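Hi L.,

As promised, DDE_Tnp_1-associated:
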Amino acid sequence: MPALPSSLISSLSCAPALPVPETAGGLIAALADLPDPRARRGIRHRLTVVVVAAICAVIAGSRSYTAIGEWVADVPATTALALGFTPDRLPSEAMIRRLLQALDAQLPTTAISVWLAGRTTTGTPPTERRAIAVDGKTIRGSRTAGGTARHVLAACDQTAGMVLASTDVDGKTNEITRFAPLLDQISDLPDAVITADAMHCQREHVDYLAKRGAHWILTVKANQPHLHKQLSRLPWKQVPQAARHDDRGHGRREIRTLKILTVAAGIDFPHAAQALQIRRRRRRLDQPRRFTTETVYAITDLRVHQAKPAQMAAWIRGHWAIENKIHWVRDVTYDEDRSQIRTGTGPHVMAALRDAAIAALRAAGITNIAAANRHHARDSNRPLALLGLI
C-alpha cells in the first residue's frame, strides 16, 4: 500500500525527480545540506521544497501550520511546479506539521542568513564595523501546563534588521551557556562589534570573543555588583559629554547622552578598555516638566582610536532597536505570543520561519511588514518572486 501524502515515512525511489528552476538555485542550494529527520524510505516531498514553501506561506502572512498547509493547498499548478511540487500531489498540513516540528531549527536559520547575505548588503559601509546584537525572546504561547515557555536566543544584524543565527534555550540551561554556541554559527565574526545586555557581561564571553577576533559593548548591572560599583564611582561629573541624541516620537521625548572614560587599569574585568555612562531622560510630550532619568553603565574593549563616540552611541541605540525590528514584528504582526505551537522543535522552527520572512522582506527594502504580508497574500507568485524562485 503506498504511503499517504502526509506520511513522514514514504518512498524516495518513487518520488518524481522534478527539475529545480535555475532561478531558485541560491535558496535551494543554501538549504540543500539540511539533514532530513525523516526515514529515507518513501519520501515524496523533499525537505528543501517543504521549507521553502513554508517560508513563502509565512511571507504571505501565515501564522500557523494550518495556515501554511492551506496556503500550499491553494497554490495554482504553475506555482506548485515552481516550488518543486507535483500539482496533483501537494503535501498535506499534517505532513508539513510533523516535518517542521522535527527539524533542528538553528540549521535553516543559519542557512537562510547565509543566502540572504549573498544577495543583499547589510547596509553597513565597508569602512565601518558590522554590529551584531545578541538578544533573547520568550515565546509565551509555547507554555504548557507542565512546563515553561520556550526561549530563543538570536544574533541580529543591527543595520539590516535580520536574524543571522538562533538557538533554543531549554529549561535545563540559560542564555549564558548558549552564547558561544549561538555565535559559533556565524563565520564572519572577526572585527564585528557584539552588543549584549547585562546577562552576558561574563568573563568567559569576552575571552571567547577575543579568540574569535570580535569586539564588544556589554551593559553592566546588578549581576556584576563589584564591577557596577567600580563604574558608578568613576569621576563622571568631570567628564564632558561625548555624544548627545534628542529624539521625539510615540508621544514622548527622549534625550540620550554618552560619556566615555579610558580604563586601561583599575577595572576588574578582562580586556576592558573604556567605560561608558549612558543617561536617558524621558518625558511625555503632554507633560513637559516631568522627566524620568535612567543611568546605565557599559564597558567595551574598543579603544579610543577604534570607534568614535557617535558610532558607539549608535551601536548602543541599535541594540535596543532589535526589539522593534524583530521582536515587535513577531509579536504584533505574526501574533507569536498567542501561537499554540508547542510540540517538538515547533516553536523554535516557526520563530525561524518568521525571522526568515522578515529578513527576506527587509532585504527587499520593505519596512512595513504587515502591509507586505497582505501584498504577498493576494498573489501566490509574489512570495516566490521575492525569494528569486521565479
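Residues 309-333 form the longest helix (25 residues).

Thanks again for sending the construct details.

K.
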